[in-house]
## 1
Amino acid sequence: MSDLFFEPLSRDAASSARLGRLHTGHGVVETPVFMPVGTQATVKGLMPDQLRGIGVQMVLANTFHLALRPGSQTVAALGGLHTLMGWDRPILTDSGGFQVFSLADRVKIADEAATFQSHIDGSTVQLTPERAVQIQEELGADIIMCLDECPAHITDRELLRAAVHRTTLWAKRCRAVHGRTDQALFGIVQGGVDLELRAQSATALQQLDFPGYAVGGLSVGESHGEMLQVLDATVPLLPDDRPRYLMGVGRPQDILEAVARGIDMFDCVLPTRNGRNAMAFTAGGVLRLRNAEHQRSAEPVEAGCPCPACCRFSRGYIRHLFQANEMLGPILLSLHNVSFFMRMMAQIRTAIAAGTFASYRRDALARLGP
Amino acid sequence: MSDLFFEPLSRDAASSARLGRLHTGHGVVETPVFMPVGTQATVKGLMPDQLRGIGVQMVLANTFHLALRPGSQTVAALGGLHTLMGWDRPILTDSGGFQVFSLADRVKIADEAATFQSHIDGSTVQLTPERAVQIQEELGADIIMCLDECPAHITDRELLRAAVHRTTLWAKRCRAVHGRTDQALFGIVQGGVDLELRAQSATALQQLDFPGYAVGGLSVGESHGEMLQVLDATVPLLPDDRPRYLMGVGRPQDILEAVARGIDMFDCVLPTRNGRNAMAFTAGGVLRLRNAEHQRSAEPVEAGCPCPACCRFSRGYIRHLFQANEMLGPILLSLHNVSFFMRMMAQIRTAIAAGTFASYRRDALARLGP
């Protein structure tokens, strides 16, 4: 078993929302937590100091991308991900499974391995469960993920069933070879929007006694309602004393609902990707900074926001930066958006602790809009 | 006359290098000073806090670009350049003359005005000396520049003579309409590499009693030696109690030689442009971070450099960022390069104060290489 442990603190009376602490070799993470995504060992456009300054506790990096470039051995030679990125707080790496199925070319999948073509140099790459663990051990994150089969949003039950079967098989093999006790290896529940398959997947994985469990394969085309149904059917089957991680989700609305269903951890590219596209998250919904209405607006992106973008710069300036194709536009809105997610998570934790999560969730959802 | 004044402090015994202070409404600038370029009201990729952190005293913004987008009235409506950029230290704006002649399409020039086509929307723009001053008054920098005619590197003496004549004419007209006493208006010496025309230009401008003087029209194709000859012939003709600004120059080698010839102020895009292209300035010359030799290098870009890029990140990581086309690569090398220029200027000032500028200059040039 790994050194990581999850300390449940308190639970909401009206929902499955819970407050906890994740103890890792790089410090304690207060949950529910949102992890900004540093795909290629950098949260796009932001310095580690800036991430710390807006309260980021933990970041995610992508095994798929880093394995192809610069290569996990290069990362290891440079001291591992924490040293490489200049980030001394916890890091989670995914297994690469999701990217293989969503990004790679000429994917062939068999029980033994997933084979695909590198988008960097065209070479053929074979990813086995054992190799996924080895790469993640070389990268050196605090939490690493089992290789899973993550099919696109499909309703073919036989395909889904095969993916769940293979994901369980691969989870066993990952578990068998994982050696670093300073890393926690999480299992990933699959099963698409088929609730019976989700239950089978969760039950099978639980028997492998992972230090944490993820719900994977969501945010791939299903509706908000379908996602919530999956969580309703899956989370109660996961052990109460282990952290639960909803992979790749999501929108503030999704997070509020998933927290209410007992999820502790989130990651998503939305704050940085939308930031690069001139879209700002605010408590009142999304703001499009390229719109002409902002041209002479001296208002900050979000009144009362303590982030460096809102403290010092106007909507008019940020609009100008985007119109002029200046890097500082994406930087400032990424900073604001990540800060928005951090503030929302802090508010969620405060509300759970204070016993006011139900009203916080209702009010926040009403303000955010659809 | 403007509120700005120049306070000469001490002079090198062996050269014309001098130490001084520039007093502006936004604080005191120690000279010789290097101004990073914030073309579109942002030093590309860097936050004002980061600029302050590495010792930037003053930045330059481009009138030409800002007049076309977002427009000087929009800048004024948003509180002027300092408020817009979140930069409370001094700012200098150029007049747009250089960009009209180097960037614009269908340029027509007459004594009355320079006319060209906007690269943003194709509209026809007329820039008169009066308009150049008005735009710069709306932008609100601490130091503004007369509109000048800045022909490309030419040897046709009649064309150069006409440009000098027109630049003097325009300087008079700028002087006549400039009203803001919290801004200093500088004159610009032209004349290409024709030393006699340079002398004529300097003498004619001096009679207009500007609070500062610039040497323009260099770094446009002439050799290093030609540039130094122009400085040798021009600077002694400029008044000793006014700051002297060498526009758009340059390389560390150029700066060391220009300081020795009595120049107090510099601006150049090199630190940020080269940073975006994976080239790092170091005391030992330029480092190309895309080179494969850096792949597994745990060394900082420059040993002993106190900048945030060198304190926390390796050459191997920065190479990875450039290979992966990540914004953080340009950000980190821009930060390092601007920091390198700031440190060099601080060393120059220290050496002048200590009476060791001659040996500092010799050693620095030897280390930098050609």
Note: Chain B has two domains: 5-268, 269-370.
## 2
Amino acid sequence: MAQEPMNTDLMKSGLLKTTGAGVLREHDLGAEVQLAGWVARRRDHGGVIFIDLRDSTGFVQVVLNPEEAPAPEDVLHGLRIEYCVQVMGTVRQRPEGTVNPDLPTGAVEVVAQRLRVLSTSEPLPFPLDGRTDIDEGLRLQYRYLDMRRDRVSRNLRARSKAIRAMRNVMDEQGFLEVETPTLIASTPEGARDMLVPSRLRQGQFYALPQSPQLFKQLLMIGGVERYYQIARCYRDEDFRADRQVEFTQLDFEGAFWGQEEVLATIELVARRVVADLGHSIGPDPFVRMTYAEAMESYGSDKPDVRFDMKIVDLSEAFTDTDFKAFAGVLADGGSVRGINGGQLGLARAGLDALVSEAQDVGAKGLVWMVVEDDGSLRSPVAKFLSDTEQADIASGLSATPGDTLLIVADHTNTVLDVLGRMRLHVGQPDGHDELAFVFVVDFPVFEVGEDGALSPAHHPFTAPADLDALVHAPETAVSKAYDLVLNGSELGSGSVRIHDAAMQAKVFEVMGISDEDAEGRFGWFLEALRYGTPPHAGFALGVARFVSILQGEPNIREVIPFPKTQTGADPLTGSPSRVKKDQLEELGICVAPDVVAAWAEEADSDPPTTDT
Amino acid sequence: MAQEPMNTDLMKSGLLKTTGAGVLREHDLGAEVQLAGWVARRRDHGGVIFIDLRDSTGFVQVVLNPEEAPAPEDVLHGLRIEYCVQVMGTVRQRPEGTVNPDLPTGAVEVVAQRLRVLSTSEPLPFPLDGRTDIDEGLRLQYRYLDMRRDRVSRNLRARSKAIRAMRNVMDEQGFLEVETPTLIASTPEGARDMLVPSRLRQGQFYALPQSPQLFKQLLMIGGVERYYQIARCYRDEDFRADRQVEFTQLDFEGAFWGQEEVLATIELVARRVVADLGHSIGPDPFVRMTYAEAMESYGSDKPDVRFDMKIVDLSEAFTDTDFKAFAGVLADGGSVRGINGGQLGLARAGLDALVSEAQDVGAKGLVWMVVEDDGSLRSPVAKFLSDTEQADIASGLSATPGDTLLIVADHTNTVLDVLGRMRLHVGQPDGHDELAFVFVVDFPVFEVGEDGALSPAHHPFTAPADLDALVHAPETAVSKAYDLVLNGSELGSGSVRIHDAAMQAKVFEVMGISDEDAEGRFGWFLEALRYGTPPHAGFALGVARFVSILQGEPNIREVIPFPKTQTGADPLTGSPSRVKKDQLEELGICVAPDVVAAWAEEADSDPPTTDT
């Protein structure tokens, strides 16, 4: 376990141990030590027993010679993996030839004078040695054993360190840590709120916060000019690989601030976390890109800029094309765009797989072209394209021999989306050795649906860049909203907020929220805006995603101490679960009749499993 | 506002301000500054307007001379209290005679070259000057204005600082910060759990944690030898003056630890918080007292040891008394005890009020005696007591002329409880200038009810001091549980935990929890105990109570950013509240029919107020 040694001041005052197993070195030779930890490995060499003793500081080898009677024979021979033991002994040099240079303590061993079993262990449901792939369900069910493994243990330490780094920056910058409530008011928009029935006020509910948004704005109104919090937030929906029903974010807000101050602060935070987790990034300011630019060049508002492979608009090359597929798309107002996938070296089957892949992500088709040594293009559609068109493609995509070019023709949104995904498919590097941060700015106020319907892209407290533009051309209006992206993942987002009650009313109107509706949903907040609200702006940064990328972990569950599954269940404790009727009665609620009826049907087919 | 200046690095990068109002001093004379904040006061002196500009760093006086046109006349004369403004100006010396030595910025003022109103304010619901007592309901409804006041602002900063102090000690001592889940499994004992219906698993519920108890024990099993967390916890009941439906505690646990290591850590934490909040306490170790001693001498497990006034057992003096009230009590196995209330100087009415007070807290009666100058006792019962008895009382209570002695005869528990309360009533100092910390240790395993029934005094994972004693004499058995008490308030509690599955099973048995019941409630935890659980111990320290005592605040709501009322309501946002039926339907729950019926009845008599 590559961990730093713990502070051992308090450990020295312990009844059971005087030092950590993993901190012993040659300068400790001759020292009498008292260790406590777990039996990670056990080897019997001609009567002498060797154990690797593990604790939170690492490992050390312990030698148990039955002739020196560190414990009764039956205890020594009964020792099993993961028994929790205490060892009193002396640090000595390992015999020549047995030094282990891979282990920090590999030059020494502890000869036991006494061994005491503090508690025994049943056989483990899976090995802890890290050499075996273990089913995630089993790992979560025995998370307390899983976290004895190096991987989880390292991730928990990294997470703790990341959060400390965030707090240190915030403290240094004069931010005040304020705890906002987690039992808050549900709003009628809160179809997504998690609710908490009140016992003292039966039939009434609290909601759990999806973010501390309105409370942090209230803090700005309250004159707390710099606020931060490591905040727990909740969302009972949309379980994708990288979402959890509860999650943690660094949440901050600054009064008398605009976008620049927020972005500068985020960069300070991100750099500190990166450095404290042992990574490095260059001194250049984080790349900044508008939403429009990100979509146009990368087909995504979360561009992975570790590699270039920009999307290029080739439409002009086909203004007069005879190739009907392209001509039709252009006539319909669509576009033809492509990426240069580089030296993919794919055989025909591999190229066809790319076509299927593109179709899977929403393309009607994908044109591939391989650049031959003589510069000509090999492609199923080459014969339909004129020499000029082929030359324009090659020059537009800076083609060199051996490159694979990928072209999509469709509605522009589809083209960008598909090429953005194909770009990641063929170009995205494995792992996270490189860290490429991007600020995406100038997000649109509205997302335009397939049917042309507008839906707000951010919460309605986000300031528009230009109120007139919002009113007169809402579909192209831009807001003062920004995201931080790392290696193609969104780490967080924020915005400049509306600080003026009249502008807020206007924005509600454009968003189709009636005065009455606004009053019912946010009346108390609209009132607060009327008491000298300062201009303010802020951000929220997801802790788990950031740490998982820095740790090279494929999903955020790896950096969460006790995660839930993708469907929100905890295999360890069995939550969520049915509860007794009388427990609900005390809260003044009941399970809906249709749900109970469904249970009854299940019970008819299956044996009942829970008392309801 | 007596606050430290903020770090101004980032403020300098701000668009709207270059420095804080409260940090300007004579060494800034001549500096051109850009300030932003709120109009705290406004005075019109012959056309020249003076405002006190307030921001999070404090106040400074700003001079607006209309002749120098810092803003159009109508803007200058339209300025109102709590308008949010930006001022560009020059720092200059205040004219002789107008220096204000009470204000940190009192030697200087800022002459405005320009003033801009960033946002206006409606007239306030209450003044912010701190000179008026304001109804707490109104303060909570406008908490964002309330926190512009010095009192709340100071308390929020103190709270933030206290939490940082706690974290600093934990970090220095090698504790790992780990976030435990807040959506956990409800247990059938969880009649007190707050529940959260799951949307994805209709009819199933998460529970909010009353503490991270089992998760922190799992972390110990998982090999995290030192865990801490500033944890949000929940309890929807028992709204006393000093409880909230959600609250925050410093939660920590150590493996291979016993009571001594935990108490040493708590003392480190408490001393750091005290120091960082600007208080001082002596170097002596915190007083330590057994539960039995605390009850016997102070009539409370939360002894306020800022003053002595111990309870004295006087029973022996009355072995052969003729005073029937005392004789009867002693014959019934009760006792006669007293305290020396000192120089109370009460007239007859005051003494009678003490008797009523004692009856209010459960005494059948209270005997008062005033020591006359000649050492004799003046008391309504004096005539029933022999000279020897009177002399024994006087010597037992170390009486000196002018002292008021208070005596109660009853069941011993009642006597101790009543005298403990009377002791606080007559002896407890106002305010918190002195800080008296006490560790109360050796708590009993069971509380004995009036009917003799035993109920566990702590959670069932608390280690008994002696398992045999627990089995054979449960009513007097002692557990390895301990509390930290400050000035008569419990700040937190903890214990050594059971780390052995067999002992845990035995303790469940003594507590009357059947195997089946234990399995249903804690099966997953009992299984975890079987995998090499280390000995461990921990503690939880309430943040709000500690900070409120250090800040001299009478209730914890004063140190909570957005507190709820004693009945769990938030007058600001209106939570908890009724929600729409379809919102509940999505969660697979409904409001219980009897609650809906009660609403209908209300609606018949009152106009309906909420759409349900």
Note: The first strand of chain A starts at residue 32 and ends at 45.
